[in-house]
Write a structure and sequence with these properties.
The structure holds 2 protein chains of 2 kinds.
Chain A: H1 6-21, H2 26-45, H3 56-65, H4 71-115, H5 120-158, H6 160-174, H7 181-190, H8 192-198, H9 205-214, H10 224-235, H11 241-272, E1 284-286, H12 294-329, E2 331-332, E3 335-336, H13 337-351, H14 356-364, H15 372-384, H16 401-410, H17 415-426, H18 432-442, H19 445-473
Antiparallel strand pairs in A: 2-3
Helix pairs in contact in A: 4-5, 5-12, 7-8, 8-18, 9-11, 9-19, 10-11, 10-17, 13-14, 14-15, 15-16, 17-19, 18-19
Chain B: H1 4-22, H2 28-37, H3 40-56, H4 63-70, H5 74-86, E1 90-93, E2 96-99, H6 101-124, H7 129-142, H8 145-154, E3 180-181, E4 190-196, H9 201-209, E5 217-223, E6 228-232, E7 235-239, H10 241-244, E8 247-251, E9 275-281, H11 287-295, E10 303-309, E11 316-320, E12 323-327, H12 329-332, E13 335-340
Chain lengths: 477, 342
């Protein structure tokens, strides 16, 4: 700007020499002093009439829920109740919705389309493809979401969830994670996308990324039906009928616990490799207990969830339904496109103890895991040419488990296929909603790619080793 | 379907091979990158750094000392020196090696980049203290002067790196830390740690394990040929003289040393129900973590009461300014307190 005069030169030199004299951590000291001054001013200006920060009731509840004896049992009890209410409570509205959307409206739409003389391909594309997939996702997903999330929100509003994080922090700390990851993991059992959003409560960048990447190992709502069906027809069928229910329930729980184990293992290795240099600061606020506002919570939660599920069904499941119907009905040289893909993927599927149909179903189910079983059934009928299906590209579920079992055996399924399907259902890429949410939350393509690809690679590795060892032990499977 | 045994064998083979190739730090890829990085420029920059360091200490750099620092054969080093001489980085006269002004500028830039990078790692990443030096050794060759300036600006033009070494300014001004080895400090008189030598790594790891940082007050209680015993921040430390020699201190006036209290000087030693007043936050806590503490209102003079411990044994919840906040053991250990009776 201007020529430096002797005076400015002198000032700059003085500043330079002072810079070395003001002391090392002068920024830190300055900031500390500003904070300290601010608190002094605040302490002088703010009067607290009766200095009684912690109420006795709060203290008593805290002593109980974090006690060495009652802390953990109480926690297990509460969460068991939440899951039991969700699973058993969702059955009834789920079957209502299924009756309404799949058994009543679907035939009506078909009749209507026939009445106005709609060509078969348009009718199939719109009604059997797009409508059916959407309806399926809504009927499977909406009721559990509408029950699970309000319950969870109530626990959170009351102030109990931060205490869970407090109790479990030591376990998570050992794997390099944050205690609050317990909460986002629990949310993940409802919906991984919601679980990823829930990681916002973790304020430490590294621990938050760990929680986002590992959330997929919490077995979400859309995957429970697959686990329950496969466990009850294959694993429950191995033991006498009166034990069947118990054993299949236990095997599903075992898969869910395996997911928790993977959460810890992956957290541990991520914090030591990929995420080594990310910043970590821990602090956990335990807010005072408050009486939850029950009706308001239930109302907003139900409305929110319904909207989210509907939005998801329309934006993700509807196009998927269209693609499924098209690939099953567009034929090249008398064979549908989907059969080419199945035949192409079959060797890989067989190698890892699954088959081509299952892999294709998982590609179709990237938008919504709920449609895995109906898609597998539809494709199996298409491939084997067995009766009982509802037509190419039309998803369905069989009324009786025996029929389902028979259909699967006809396509060469074994117990290994069932076990590996359960494993793969636990360990594979997150659904597109979750991937999209991860991208929005992290704002990073790199971490989105890691979160999406890591589980699917792990899934192939795990099923591959299980398949080979199984075949070695069982002779040939 | 392939034979399971063959499939299994192939998979194990592939995984072993992949691990061999891509294992972090020890894999083939990592090693290949390392050797590739040891090109002419990097070795010449390392040599400049070494010569500058010796000049600062008033010692004479020799062919042997440079070979030792670069881990090179003397033949290679002689070639390197010839090349550097041709590039006008140094002069060799009467067997003495001297930096040219251009060589000194380059050396100062490398040192500046190295120390800024260490500061950056300490302030803004979660890397461990022991990892800073190694990473800075690589980063110093990557940063251009313009990038170093941008980094310095971003960090608020820090004067010292986290070990207490002064960071040269962009014009190359550099002051010494001015400390003397801890071993030369008179017994029982207080001193302020101004610098911890980060080379060799083995000794630095011991200093890091003792939880010593620049800015801490120390007092030597015993100085024998086989061990040095000193107090700092309420803890007693016992190290070998060679380790103590890598700690630089400046003597403090006698009254700067606070008298020892009853032994409870960290937040961690409070049992539930006990109250203490914060004295300060340890210098080991830096960057985002330190700011988080201050955000929570943990400042000198704040009164903190331990409330309850997690059934897992850690963390512990403290009442800080009316809010109940859980802190982990390592964090609470960074907060120096003075216990008050209640």
């Amino acid at each position: 700007m201007t020529v430096q005069t002797g005076a400015t030169q002198a000032i700059l030199e003085t500043a330079d020499s002072l810079r070395w004299q003001i002391g090392r951590e002068f920024h830190e000291h300055l900031m500390e002093d500003i904070y300290t001054d601010a608190t002094h001013i605040a302490d002088r200006a703010v009067t607290r009439p009766d200095e009684k920060p912690r109420f006795d009731l709060d203290r008593t509840i805290d002593r109980l829920v974090t006690s060495r004896i009652f802390g953990f049992p109480l926690m297990i009890l509460l969460f068991t109740i939440v899951f039991w209410l969700t699973i058993s409570g969702a059955n009834v509205p789920s079957s209502w919705l299924a009756t309404l959307l799949l058994d009543t409206i679907h035939p009506l739409l078909k009749q209507g389309a026939a009445a106005i003389g709609m060509p078969w391909w348009l009718d199939g594309f719109l009604i059997d493809g797009m409508y059916l997939a959407t309806a399926w996702v809504v009927s499977v997903m909406l009721p559990p979401m509408a029950i699970f999330f309000p319950l969870f929100t109530l626990l959170e509003d009351f102030g109990y969830l931060p205490r869970v994080a407090f109790n479990l922090d030591n376990a998570f700390k050992k794997s390099g994670a944050h205690g609050k990851q317990a909460l986002s993991m629990m949310m993940g059992f409802g919906c991984n996308a919601a679980g990823v959003v829930a990681t916002r409560v973790i304020d430490s960048p590294r621990e938050r990324l760990i929680a986002i990447i590992t959330n997929n190992f919490a077995l979400c709502n859309g995957r429970w039906p697959t686990q329950i069906l496969i466990a009850s027809i294959f694993i429950g069928g191995l033991v006498p009928a009166y034990l069947g229910g118990l054993i299949s329930a236990l095997s599903v729980v075992a898969i869910a616990l395996l997911g928790v184990l993977f959460t810890f293992l992956v957290s541990w290795s991520l914090s030591r490799t990929l995420l080594k240099g990310e910043v970590s600061t821990f602090s956990l606020e335990l807010p005072p207990y408050r009486p939850p506002r029950i009706w308001q919570t239930i109302y907003t939660s139900v409305i929110d969830r319904t909207l989210i599920v509907l939005w998801r069904a329309i934006t993700f499941a509807m196009p998927a339904g269209a693609v499924i119907w098209l690939t099953a009905n567009v034929t090249i040289g008398g064979t549908s496109v989907v059969e080419y893909v199945i035949n192409f993927l079959n060797p890989l599927g067989i190698l890892v103890g699954l088959n081509g149909v299952i892999l294709v179903a998982y590609i179709f189910a990237i938008p919504a895991n709920e449609i895995v079983i109906p898609t597998i059934l539809m494709l199996t009928v298409l491939v084997t040419g067995a009766g009982g299906g509802a037509g190419a590209g039309v998803m369905f579920e069989l009324e009786s488990q025996a029929d389902t079992l028979a259909l699967f055996y006809a396509d060469g399924w074994t117990l290994l296929t069932a076990v590996n399907l359960m494993l793969f259902s636990l360990i594979h890429n997150p659904c597109s909603t979750t991937i999209y949410t991860i991208y929005k939350e992290t704002g990073s393509k790199k971490w989105t790619a890691v979160a999406s690809l890591l589980p699917v690679v792990m899934g192939f590795v795990v099923t591959f080793f299980v398949a080979q060892i199984w075949r070695l032990v069982a002779g040939i499977g | 379907m392939p034979d399971p045994l063959i499939a299994l064998g192939t998979a194990v083979l592939i995984i072993t091979l992949a691990a061999f190739l891509f294992w972090p730090e020890h894999g083939w890829l990592a090693r290949w990158r390392q050797t590739n990085q040891l090109n002419e420029r990097i070795r010449s920059e390392d040599a400049l750094k070494h010569i500058h360091k010796f000049e600062m200490k008033g010692r004479r750099p020799t062919l042997e000392s440079i070979s030792g620092a670069l881990n090179n054969s003397q033949n290679d080093t002689a070639q390197l020196i010839a090349a550097m001489q041709a590039n006008n980085f140094l002069t060799v006269a009467d067997g003495e090696i001297h930096l040219t002004p251009q060589g000194r500028d380059s050396a100062l830039h490398i040192i500046r980049a190295h120390r800024l990078w260490e500061r950056y790692l300490a302030e803004e990443t979660g890397f461990q203290q022991s990892e800073w030096h190694g990473q800075a050794e690589l980063a110093e060759h990557r940063l251009t002067p313009a990038q170093a300036d941008a980094l310095a600006f971003h960090l608020g033009n820090p004067t010292h790196d986290p070990h207490g070494d002064p960071i040269p300014t962009a014009d190359g001004a550099l002051v010494a830390h001015g400390g003397q080895p801890l071993t030369t400090l008179p017994l029982d008189s207080p001193g302020l740690i101004v610098h911890l030598e980060d080379e060799p790594e083995v000794i630095y790891a011991q200093l890091a394990a003792e939880d010593l940082h620049p800015g801490m007050v120390v007092r030597v209680t015993e100085s024998a040929p086989e061990r040095v015993r000193f107090w700092s921040n309420g803890d007693e430390h016992l190290v070998a003289p060679i380790v103590a020699g890598n700690i630089s201190v400046i003597p403090l006036p006698e009254d700067e040393m606070e008298e020892d209290t009853d032994g409870c000087e960290r937040l961690t030693c409070l049992s539930p129900g006990e109250t203490a007043v914060v004295v300060n936050i340890s210098n080991a806590s830096r960057g985002p973590e330190r700011r988080r503490f201050m955000d929570l209102g943990i400042l000198p003079g704040t009164s903190i009461t331990a409330e309850m411990r997690s059934p897992g044994g850690d963390p512990t919840a403290y009442i800080i300014r009316g809010a109940l906040i859980a802190l982990r053991h390592e964090q609470a250990n960074l907060i120096k307190v003075k216990k008050t009776g209640d």
